[in-house]
């Protein structure tokens, strides 16, 4: 979509038209949806990512949408429903036409025995719970969450996805998506599914330390699927604040990213801005870049990078950070780490 045109989500009298015209919108696969280049992740509207302020969350959501951000992502898993509940409060007073929203099912509780449930019965219950918390009649995308954790892929293909198709036919959702970290598993699911899958959401796979998505983009695009790329900041590794203690990356990755972080701090430059800039320059980074944002400060610096790029000082720092990160291979990831941890906890609890 042309950068200067107005998207179908534009609401006269609500949006800041000048800001909306600055935003870039891309087709999300074959869904008929045009999504803003930057979209709003709300995992931080819960204790998963530290403290948050409900009033600030609400102001952030309102400002983001008024300035042209038109896709919001949440999940039943984030804070075990907390994110959806807070987001429901934040959406009050915003026209439903003004945004698209995706949520997720199948991942729920902290207890490993109850964490995942891919059954049809639980999936049907989940969408009703999500809509109640969000105070909405429908979501635009319902996604099967972290499919690599399913007991086997067959249950996702033969039970979860047909149930999501049923949910879409009921009018409670419009499109079906799958999410996960291992791109090979997402690809296999798409290849084997008899239910058309409209979108994939992957994370940390098109960043300054991992370009794995490049190997899969052509496949997903050939299927006319929308690509939602989350966590280009590598879940906090590529920010000045650093990651949460639970981050699954191995120590070597954390150490090198810490060196980049300390360099940026010494130069009074935000590493997160450099990480987003890198993703924006990379054409394989997906139709929309999903960023966890819970304050207007974070919103403003991300939009500043999108609209204005980097300052000369930040450009210089960007080059230095790339040199530091060359200590890592271009596909530095933690695939299977969380899965093995989950299996170990599940085995112990049983």
TrEMBL record:
GO molecular function annotation: L-galactose dehydrogenase activity
- Cellular compartments per GO CC: cytosol
Q: Which domain of life is it from?
A: Eukaryota
Q: Spell out the InterPro entries in the cross-references.
A: AKR, LGALDH-like, NAD(P)_OxRdtase_dom_sf, NADP_OxRdtase_dom
CDD domains assigned to the protein according to its UniProt record, in alphabetical order: AKR_galDH
| Domain NADP-dependent oxidoreductase span(s) in chain numbering | 37-321
Protein name in UniProt: NADP-dependent oxidoreductase domain-containing protein
Q: Which organism is it from?
A: Rhynchophorus ferrugineus (Red palm weevil)
């Amino acid at each position: 979509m042309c950068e200067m045109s107005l998207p179908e989500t534009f609401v006269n009298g609500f949006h800041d038209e000048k800001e909306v015209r600055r935003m870039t919108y891309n087709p999300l696969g074959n869904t008929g949806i045009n999504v803003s280049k930057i979209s709003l992740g709300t995992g931080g509207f819960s204790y998963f990512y530290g403290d948050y302020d409900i009033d600030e969350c609400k102001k952030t959501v309102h400002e983001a949408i008024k300035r042209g951000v038109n896709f919001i992502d949440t999940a039943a898993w984030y804070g075990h429903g907390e994110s959806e509940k807070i987001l429901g409060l934040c959406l009050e007073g915003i026209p439903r036409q003004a945004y698209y929203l995706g949520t997720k099912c199948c991942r729920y509780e902290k207890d490993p025995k109850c964490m995942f449930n891919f059954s049809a019965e639980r999936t049907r219950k989940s969408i009703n719970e999500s809509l109640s918390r969000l105070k909405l009649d429908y979501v635009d995308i319902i996604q099967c969450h972290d499919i690599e954790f399913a007991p086997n892929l067959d249950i996702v293909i033969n039970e979860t996805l047909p149930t999501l198709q049923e949910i879409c036919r009921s009018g409670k959702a419009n499109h079906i998506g799958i999410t996960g970290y291992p791109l090979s598993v997402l690809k296999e699911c798409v290849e084997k599914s008899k239910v058309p899958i409209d979108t994939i959401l992957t994370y940390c796979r098109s960043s300054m330390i991992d370009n794995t998505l490049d190997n899969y983009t052509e496949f997903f695009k050939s299927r006319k699927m929308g690509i939602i790329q989350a966590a280009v900041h590598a879940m906090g590794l590529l920010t000045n604040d650093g990651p949460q203690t639970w981050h699954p990356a191995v120590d070597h990755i954390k150490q090198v990213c810490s060196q980049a972080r300390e360099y940026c701090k010494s130069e009074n430059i935000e590493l997160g801005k450099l990480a987003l800039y890198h993703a924006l320059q990379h054409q394989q980074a997906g139709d929309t870049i999903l960023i966890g944002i819970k304050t207007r400060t974070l919103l403003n610096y991300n939009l500043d990078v999108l609209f204005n790029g980097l300052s000369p000082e930040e450009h210089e720092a960007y080059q230095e950070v790339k040199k530091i990160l060359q200590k890592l291979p271009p596909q530095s990831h933690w695939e299977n780490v969380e899965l093995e941890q989950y299996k170990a906890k599940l085995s112990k609890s049983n």
